[in-house]
Hints:
This protein is α+β, with helices and mostly antiparallel strands. The chain has helices spanning 50-60, 79-101, 104-117, 185-194; strands at 11-18, 21-29, 34-36, 39-40, 68-75. It has a 5-stranded mixed sheet.
Amino acid sequence: MAAAVVPSKESVQCFGRKKTAVAVTYCKRGRGLIKINGCPIELVEPEILRFKAYEPILLLGRHRFADVDMRIRVKGGGHTSQIYAIRQSIAKTLVAFYQKYVDEQSKKEIKDILVRYDRTLLVADPRRCEPKKFGGRGARASLLPPPFSFLQFFPSSLPVSSLPPGLLPPPSPSPGRPVSSLLPPSLSRAASSLLPPPCLPPSSLPLGLRLLPPPSSLPPSLSRSPPPPPPSSLALPVSRVYF
Length: 243
């Protein structure tokens, strides 16, 4: 007596990943059930990210999921990573099922729709969090001194109130305070070795450390202050000024 031939069960299994979260989806012929860790997809948590898990269904239509059952197991990562892993595994599993048991044309249509909307529905996202480095408080930030600024050696005639907060020059040194005290700690030792004795005139200082005289003592041809206004008899009435 010949043994009865048992029809093979049409099923596929695919996985999706996001960071350290892994979701595995088992898909077979059925009646449209989709469960995540034994819970219906309509009750997946967190609620605010529920529509991210719905995206493959909303894009492709419920009719493409009507004759399959999907059971998803997910673990690892956080809430957001698990949702992204779930949506990727659902999309990849449906593409694999249509390729294996339906036809190539339908599979190509599904794949084109998914890739056109978001490529990460079919391709894993390789981005990872940048690890923290020693000597700093974060992955990129460090505890180095602030950047060196030449504004402290070349004062401008512009009013201080017009400068951004990050470009405000520090107070000028007192008579008994050397110019090198204005430098960052990392440059003060090198600058002090370049300074000549105090008895030499300022003209012997290096160009980068030479303090310019205040604008009021410069001749009119070199002063950067705005020109005086014209006489009142020649002034034109201006109601509004645009800068």
